[in-house]
Amino acid sequence: MAPRITVVEDEEALSILLRYNLEAEGYAVDTIARGDEADLRLKEQVPDLLLLDWMLPGLSGVELCRRLRARPETERLPIIMLTARGEESERVRGLSTGADDYVVKPFSTPELMARVRAMLRRVKPERISSQLVAGDIDLDRETHRVRRAGRELKLGPTEFKLLEFLMQSPGRVFSREQLLDGVWGRDIYVDERTVDVHVGRLRKAVNRGRQRDPIRTVRGAGYALDETFTAAAPRASSVRPEAV
Ligand code: CA
């Protein structure tokens, strides 16, 4: 069963983005826009992890967090707080209310996904999905194996990371700079053309010259995992390209 994540966020666009990305990672997602409503719903059903906005109508995220910690059923529920810039000085207070972690908006989605994974791995190591699926491609993070239509592909370490990065956010266009940050890391100096070279190698390995290309080149913008490719996947029901 997929880990269940509840997102309490009143900013609709952000809530949709989070749902889209979390579902693409294979989680079951509930979204709630009000603090008081979340308080009620979390009495009925406890998820595996909670993403909780700081400022909410009805009941603040801070107060909700306190209440959750006071109830035995949610005492140990993993909570990641989402705080706006400027509220950062409040972060100590946030953690002292019982949140396990926090991220500051605007945050990078891959980074948040990594935190979610890390936290679930800590609390429910058996339930974290190590599989990413797009179309007929599946990638296993644990074993570092990639298969296309069941046949194993040989990818270099950079190509693997690049594919993993793109598969985490299907449809989203990443600039070369964002790909450098996300795949190579900020500390290493690499020319932006390096990205093109590795995308070329990745394509070659994945397509073998004749299969459908899952990577979309967006002129002047960058690269994306083609969401129509993903939509053709068996997992299509959990991915909603129209949501972003
Ligand atoms: Ca808010």
Automatic annotation (TrEMBL):
Domain OmpR/PhoB-type: 129-227
GO CC terms of this entry: cytosol; protein-DNA complex
Positions where 4-aspartylphosphate occurs in the chain: 53
Gene3D superfamilies listed in its UniProt record: 3.40.50.2300, 6.10.250.690, Winged helix-like DNA-binding domain superfamily/Winged helix DNA-binding domain
Keyword Ligase: no
One Pfam family from the record: Response_reg
Entry's localization field: Cytoplasm
Domain of life from the UniProt record: Bacteria
Keyword Transcription regulation: yes
InterPro entries tied to this protein: CheY-like_superfamily, OmpR/PhoB-type_DNA-bd, Sig_transdc_resp-reg_C-effctor, Sig_transdc_resp-reg_PhoB, Sig_transdc_resp-reg_receiver, WalR-like, WH-like_DNA-bd_sf
Segments forming domain Response regulatory: 4-120
Molecular function terms, GO-annotated: phosphorelay response regulator activity; transcription cis-regulatory region binding
DNA-binding region listed in the record: 129-227
Principal localisation: cytoplasm
GO biological process: phosphate ion transport; regulation of DNA-templated transcription
Identification of the protein by name: Phosphate regulon transcriptional regulatory protein PhoB
